[in-house]
Automatic annotation (TrEMBL):
Gene coding for it: sigJ
Subunit structure: Interacts transiently with the RNA polymerase catalytic core formed by RpoA, RpoB, RpoC and RpoZ (2 alpha, 1 beta, 1 beta' and 1 omega subunit) to form the RNA polymerase holoenzyme that can initiate transcription.
Residues of the RNA polymerase sigma-70 region domain: 10-71
Family according to the record: Belongs to the sigma-70 factor family. ECF subfamily.
Pfam families: Sigma70_r2, Sigma70_r4_2
Protein name per its UniProtKB record: RNA polymerase sigma factor SigJ
RNA polymerase sigma factor 70 region 4 type domain boundaries: 123-173
Single GO molecular function: sigma factor activity
Amino acid sequence: MSTDDLAHAFEAERPRLLRLAYATTGSWSDAEDCVQDAWLRLRTQDPASIRNLAAWLTTTVGRLALDVLGSARVRRERYVGTWLPEPVVTAPGARSPVASSAATARDAADPADRATLDEEVSMALLLVLERLSPAQRVAFVLHDVFGLPFEEVGDVVGRSPAAVRQLASRARQDVEAGRPRGRTSRAEQERVVEAFVAACAGDDLPTLLGLLDPDVTLRGDGGGKVRALRHPVQGAQSVGEVLLSYLRNRPRGAGAVDVNGSPGLALVDGSGVLTVLAFTLADGRVVALDIVRNPDKLTTVPPGLLDDPGPWWP
């Protein structure tokens, strides 16, 4: 394989590798660094020594992401306020770069030893993955989501195949227990987000409460760089009051976006701070709302998505 052929083959794998690293680290910027490091390592290899390029890249990126995850856990202990994953923001309906590779897992893994993950790498999933140990998270992502055999996952995490099977099993149970109940269609998601905007713009607390699950959780992430909630808020009444206090003022710019493949909002408030709202729905109601304001985590927001908020904020 020539150098050009190797480069073309790597680029064909890049989207999958980015999803893998992102699901492992919860950071798109870290994911990009992992994939770039894998490319630099690949360039030092003799192509003839690599029997299966996709497997080699998967293992290499998995190891790099595991290293990043370990150091990131230490940084997050010193993080100011609530830490949230870095959202991937795209235009509404656009193909998300975090679209699931569940089809690969279905083809490659024993159905008894995998989770059913046929949605994007959502903010909700990333938050559930944060509860796992680094080894559990990598085992789950590599095996259940990307279909890597236990033997190859063991090479990444330094465990036997039997130990990896146990890691993945425990992780799978935690993920299934932490995932939102029920499924919500995209049309229903869009309807709820539009109704949410109308209620906030109209300072309509009763309508807003009707959109929120009684046990809804509101989280905010400013990273100590901009104002944000320091601690999560729980319960529909409290969350509704906080939201109206924050969102009743007409933003400078607003637009519908997709956040990790699901309908969300992007706003620029009166002080010029960019904000992304990620909704998690279950049974037609908002069960979690994550507000990301840390500018370091909003680098994926495409320019031009935020226009005059007229149609959004009457």
